[in-house]
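User: Can you help me understand a structure? I only have the sequence.
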Amino acid sequence: NAKTAVIKIAEYLEVLDLANSSVYAKNLQNYLKKLDSLSEIALELSKKNDFSSKPLIFCDRFPFRYMTDELGAKYFAAFSGCSAETEASFETVAFLSKKVQEFEEPRVFVTENSDKKIAKTVIKNAGFDGK
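Assistant: Let's start by predicting it. Here is the structure, written out as tokens:
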């Protein structure tokens, strides 16, 4: 889907801005290569992990939703996507803590530069604090 969207956007820009059409074409090819690389990484990841028995638990924004859906990965997340929210509700923290306990999985995922506040609270409430 991403490739189709990027190709259509590039085609449209090339028509709108004929003087720079070669720049758009070059950028399109570079971006398509990056998307292919991401697909290869996702494929390798799915080969190495059984997501059905050990789901991914995200205690942060969730920019990986489409990739996890494509991989068929089971996941639980504090937010449904790249939410602007910074605080998870009490119910969400309690739910994620129960999932950490249920799957005996003290590892949770956060995005780069996260303050890890939600993750630390979930882990502590699941009884894995300090382990």
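Now, to help you interpret it: The CA atoms of residues 1 and 7 lie 10 Å apart. Strands lie at 56-58, 75-77. Let me know which part you'd like to focus on.
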